[in-house]
Amino acid sequence: MQTPRICASKRKGRDLMPQDETLLIGADRSDTSLRGASSFSDLTPEIQAQMYRRLGGLGLIYAGAWTANFLYFRFSAQAFGASGRAAFWYTTTAICVLAGIAVYVSCRGRKIPPRHFSTVATLFEVLGGFGIMAGFFGFEHLGDVFVHRVAAALGIPPEDIVSRIVLPLGREGIRLLYIDGVTWVSVWLLAFPLLIPAPLSRTVLSTLLTAATVPAIMFASIWVNGVPPNIESWIGPYILEATVPTFICAAIAIFSSRVVYQLTRDLSKARRMGSYHLVERIGAGGMGEVWKARHRLLARPAAVKLIRPETLGRDEASSQTAVRRFEREAQATSGLCSPHTIELYDFGIAEDGTFYYVMELLDGIDLKSLIERQGPIPPERVVHVLRQVCHSLHDAHRRGIVHRDIKPANIYLCRYGADLDFVKVLDFGLVKNAGEVTKFETQLTFDGMVCGTPGFMAPEAVTGSETVNPASDIYALGCVGYWLLTGQLVFEGDSFMDIVVKHAKDDPIPPSKRTETLVPPELEEIILRCLEKRPADRPSGARELGRLLERCAESLPEWSEARAEGWWETHLPAKADDVDAGEAEPGEAERGTAVLPAPPGT
């Protein structure tokens, strides 16, 4: 047995693994002792869910087909013949219908553990074939009845059937008892492996066993009932006509299933980033996508941001430069320790060149969506939010990191364990070391990509008059506070250039004049001080701004835990069946779901 390979990126506060090391957390794929008995467990949760739905659908179709078949023959003339055969038919139908319903219910409720899914699917395929072939049990009796009816129609006595019908037809190479086409078992074994693909060995086993139900039931019927003399010469060819096409269909099913299974594995592999399975997309932007994901071994929910290769650069050199920048930024973000900074679990490059970050998955709403849906929030809550953002920024600034894209969409209000209104600062994807870039380079990430959002860009970022520094984040945070108090941007305009020019030249209108909400003078003074044109006139850093907000909070009503709880229960109630944030449906932040904003460039 090959020794398991255990590798992991280091947690926040330490350097992540070098890019030339593996990002796989867990055992080698060849070590089945840690992967479980079934390769079904290796598929992404989304594909597993599709397989459950397909198997459940097959169970429902199977039960429905048996019900329809029973009703058709039940009301056909002389459908069952002898009462004993009618009882057998009733029993077989009931068993098959119940089996199909049981499979449907089990799959719908996910009552089949993933490690047993393939086994259950195999058993259902084989037993389903037996059920279909149950209708053939006693076929020799029906064949004999058919020949007797032909003889009666021709006025031939029963004792003369062989001499006057069977032998003359035999000399001419004609049979009355034959199969035209394929059995329903062939249809079943063709459809099943295509809808529920499995590894080649399991597919071969289940398909051949299912195909073998055709001769098995027919020989069992002959062994139990014997062969009537009137059709004895036709039995061999009849069984071959049923069996040979079935095994031909089995060969087709095995080949087709192998192709479908490989495509399924490739899709699952494409949905895997390092040790994480991509479950569903929860955001998209100009540079890539954000997916809800789950760790393969820990079942921990996460958010994976994918940066598409084509956005990294027009040529190999610029692409490599971009990759190195992303690596550096990921390592810088991983070193941030504030609980109000989103946690980075991992990062890496997929086989197709896609760069990805793995981050914690949050449950709540971003400030942009909050204000757009609810309107301005009370001043005491504004202070509560801004103080937490200051905590995150102070941690970043003291490590020489400037965020450069502070805006409402990048500040997330969370249900974080037992805490409500817990702030997380997102998207450090545009971080820069303070003083690293000068002049107009402050406008670029790479290859002409504008850095920052016009409604929240500091004057120095617009004019390139100074290097990137923490004061730029302070200005942007002032814009955020203005947005929270008024529901409006500090400056609005018809174009990007119109807005950024106003940031560079115009004085802001005090927020108290743009809202009906009473804005405390102390808070307004702090916001306007953050919006000063000269960086030196703003608070000297996030720590000082936090202290100013703390003193301001002393003169305001308390934003208490009870008030926060009341707001969340009213506007973003937690679903009663939530086990963790990863179980929430995407795109429903208003119900407290776990989502993240799209990547930069949205």
Molecular structure report:
There is one protein chain. The chain has three domains: 1-33 and 278-362, 2-Layer Sandwich (Phosphorylase Kinase, domain 1), CATH 3.30.200; 34-270, no CATH class; 364-573, Transferase(Phosphotransferase), domain 1. The protein contains 18 helices and eleven strands. The protein has helices spanning 32-35, 45-74, 83-108, 114-133, 139-154, 161-171, 184-195, 200-225, 232-270, 316-334, 367-374, 379-397, 459-463, 470-486, 496-505, 521-530, 542-553, 561-571, and strands at 272-273, 276-284, 288-295, 301-307, 344-349, 355-359, 364-366, 401-402, 411-416, 419-425, 432-433. Strands 1-2-3-4-6-5 form a six-stranded antiparallel β-sheet. It has a three-stranded antiparallel β-sheet with strand order 7-9-10. α7 (184-195) packs antiparallel against α8 and α12 runs antiparallel to α17 (542-553). The chain is elongated and about 115 Å long.
